[in-house]
Amino acid sequence: MQPTTAHSARALRSQGALAVLRYAHAHPSATRADASRALGLSSGSATEITSRLKAARLIGEDAPARTGGRGRPSPALTAHPEGPLVCVVDISHEGWRVAAIELGGGVLTESTGRHTGSPDVVAPLAGHVAALQARYGRRLRAVSACVAGTVSGTEVVQASGMGWRDVSLEPLKPDGIPLLVGNDASLAGLAEARRGAGAGSRVVLHLTVEVGVGGILVVDGRPVNGATGAGGEFGHMPFGDPALDCPCGARGCWDLEVDGRAMARALHRPPPRDPRTAAGDVIAAAASDPGARAAVAGAARALGRGMGALANALDPDVVTLSGLAVDLAATAPGALEDGYRTALMRYRRAAPPPVLPSTLGPHGPLTGAADTAFDVLLTDEGLDAWTRG
Amino acid sequence: MQPTTAHSARALRSQGALAVLRYAHAHPSATRADASRALGLSSGSATEITSRLKAARLIGEDAPARTGGRGRPSPALTAHPEGPLVCVVDISHEGWRVAAIELGGGVLTESTGRHTGSPDVVAPLAGHVAALQARYGRRLRAVSACVAGTVSGTEVVQASGMGWRDVSLEPLKPDGIPLLVGNDASLAGLAEARRGAGAGSRVVLHLTVEVGVGGILVVDGRPVNGATGAGGEFGHMPFGDPALDCPCGARGCWDLEVDGRAMARALHRPPPRDPRTAAGDVIAAAASDPGARAAVAGAARALGRGMGALANALDPDVVTLSGLAVDLAATAPGALEDGYRTALMRYRRAAPPPVLPSTLGPHGPLTGAADTAFDVLLTDEGLDAWTRG
DNA sequence: CGGATTATGCTCGTTCCACGAGGATAATCG
DNA sequence: CGATTATCCTCGTGGAACGAGCATAATCCG
């Protein structure tokens, strides 16, 4: 189970090109000189590699040279106009989005819509994907779906926001190209760790609150998402009241302590139909209503406690937050901090992992989904498949 | 934060050799033909690579060809008699062990002893390490320490079994070679995942009970051990009674529910001085004493609950157990299973990650410590440093 | 405005690693 | 003892990157 290393000449063949391509994807608008400096390539190698990549229709360099500094200007490495694309499908609890994304993250086309929450939405989404494949043909290399629910393989085993259970997303898969499915919070965390608030940190713990808590641990840019992609379902750890039943089938889930359901309980209200909106309302009301303020503080404290527990166990460099977690932290910073510190092991309290709000905001899930798809394409095998065709 | 790829010719230079060397380390007694088959090398490349490795005094092939099958016999890839060594220092709650280990895991020398639990033991251990360095000189490439306590960098911030707090192991570090420090449970888990019960599984969750609970998540053979090496301290997640104070400074830690302290509480006994031995006694008594049986069942159930919670969040392929956890599972399998299943999300219950006892047993921590040290040596930089000298 | 400065890109000969075909070698099998 | 099987070595080939030297394209500054 050691990591497979490049060892055959065939695998080595594209190592340099792969490194440049990955760099170009991770740093849009980087110049060729930036890449060769970052990767330690000689200028001769850079020339050879970029010309190979251009010939393979992977990158273009036609962008106007960004001028302004001294010295000879360097054209930016951009996606090739006939280069590979990925299709990203985002299914949140109230709407959907389908986009075609090129190397570097540029969005070529995008459609959005709303849905009722029924799994029937998968069929029309499959239509959109098929339309993109018809339009772009072989340029479309992968479909990456991003769902607000628990994922196992390409199946959504549970989505509390939409009431889904065991919904397969296989219908989204066009012939001949891979389908990847991920949880929205996990994908947002991946993007946040690579390109957002966690950029530069080796070990990033990301947490989102929408309906329940989700997140992901990202180590060296790789998401720790488990055997089936369900890694990061931190909301179903029993940090809460053991007497409460969770829709997931377990008890005492953290999920139930931090979202709209928790705040409704604190306010002696019935369980809200849409916990996401209800939570937003309570947070908004907290400015003037002490009861709401207390409910928000309770949720923030529970969030902080769980964060501390996870920090004890996973030892991140930094914790990033998105979704309602940012609002909880902004509205009740004291309660969050208090919960966080008391849950930390004593030795950690002198220098706890800093807690940072998302910088990508609502773009996180889509960016992460596109990145995971390109992770598959930007490999020996993926490049091989592209150039062979 | 993308993984750094080999891109320069200098990095590529040793890729094939590195792959063979890693294979030889991971599979002691493998033949050259095995390695070239597993790595997809041509026989010509294998010849070239092995001769380079022999010239660099990294591997020998002088072992008698293992004969018995048809065809020309193939000599096994063994450690070179003047090859690199690592020094492993194991500090458990009652004894210590210092060993020199060669590539492939062979033990060259080993000394053991007992200690009183005082941090003063570090000084004599440093003496043992220095003696090994004097004896082996440049062959000694790294020191890897394995401690029954919470680790941060090269410091033991807390060791409940020995009463340590903020003990630096830097004195163990000889000049010029790296010192690595890890938690015993985490290192045992690494070994178990690569060479033991978890071999062949991509995502392995390992858990140990000694005093408290420790463990590690291992993904693709890499331990997820966080920013400072404290990743895997699962025992300090609040799965337990929130009213109980843990010596770590937090409350409700899982630690307190599964070990000798928990069983003593269940039996209305005072907190034991040596929870490890006390736990063993209770488990032994469970054969005849119903009270002890109930106490064991309680601990096993708490262990199972935490396992389920971690399986929800981390999504392993398999869960491996060592230390007292194996005894708990053997003595009260029903309680463990019950706790495990009820803590799992419903959708997981049809096919929960299998729970397997350790196959390496007490060798786990040392094997893991040696492996982490060789992980550092079996890299471009490590090989470079070796051949330059 | 035009040379100096700075930075980048291209050319070309060299090096290193692995490939792959073909023949040599060393065991077991019948 | 020959046939079979499996492994190992030799040698010519090719790909990828290096690095020195030169060409190119902007800004800076007198």
UniProtKB/TrEMBL annotation, chains A, B:
Transmembrane ranges? none
Source domain of life: Bacteria
Region of interest (Disordered), ranges: 60-79
Among InterPro entries, the record links this protein to: ATPase_NBD, ROK, WH-like_DNA-bd_sf, WH_DNA-bd_sf
Q: Name one Pfam family in it.
A: ROK
Membership in a protein family: Belongs to the ROK (NagC/XylR) family.
What is the protein's name according to its record? Answer: ROK family protein
Which organism's genome codes for this protein?
Answer: Actinomadura monticuli
